[in-house]
Amino acid sequence: MDENSYKLEQQLHTLQKQQRAAEDTLLLLKREQNEQEWLEEDFTRHCQLEMETITSLRELWQGDEARNFAYYLEDIHEEEKKNWRKNMVSKREKQQEKINSCQKTLYQIEREQQSIQKELTR
Fold first, then answer.
1. Is the pTM value of this prediction over 0.90?
2. What is the three-state SS of 23-55?
3. Which of 62, 84, 109, 119 gets the highest tally of CB atoms within 10 A of its CB?
4. In this structure, which long-range contacts are made by residues 111-116, counting pairs with CB atoms below 8 Å and at least 24 apart in sequence?
5. What does the CA dihedral 62, 47, 74, 69 come to, rounded to 10 degrees?
6. 120: which residues sit within 8 A by CB, 6+ positions away?
C-alpha cells in the first residue's frame, strides 16, 4: 500500500468514527424529541383535568366571591398553559434544529467517505 492509499484509509477510518458518533447523537436527539412529545401529551391531559376540576368547583361554589375566585383560577391556568406551550414549542424548534444539523453532518461525512472510496478504487 502506498503512502497516499494509507492516508486515505486513515481518513476513511476517521470519518467512520465521526459517522458513528453522529449517528449516536442523532439517536439521542430523536429519543429526547420523543420524550418531549410524551411530555406534551401528558401536559395536555393534565390541563384537561385541571379545567374539569375548575369547572366543577365553579359550579359547586356559592356566591359572587367564590365564582370570581374560580374565574381567577381559570385565568391563571390559561396563562400558565400559554407560557408552558410557548416553552414547549421553543424546545421543539431547538431540538429540530439540532436534529437537522446532525443529519447534515451525517450527509457530509457520507459524501466524504464516498469520495475517498472512489479515490481508493482508482
1. no
2. HHHHHHHHHHHHHHHHHHHHHHHHHHHHHHHHH
3. 109
4. 112/11, 112/15, 113/12, 113/15, 113/16, 113/19, 116/8, 116/11, 116/12, 116/15
5. 40
6. 5, 8, 9, 12
Residue 103: partners with Cβ closer than 8 Å, 6 or more residues away? 26
Asked if 43 and 84 count as a contact pair (C-beta separation under 8 A), the reply is: yes
Domain residue spans of the chain? 12-116
3-60 and 64-121 helices, crossing angle to 10°: 170
pLDDT in tens, the chain (122 residues): 688 888 989 999 999 999 999 999 999 999 999 999 999 999 999 999 998 988 888 888 777 887 788 888 889 999 999 999 999 999 999 999 999 999 999 999 999 999 999 988 87
| Alpha-carbon span 81 to 75, nearest angstrom | 10
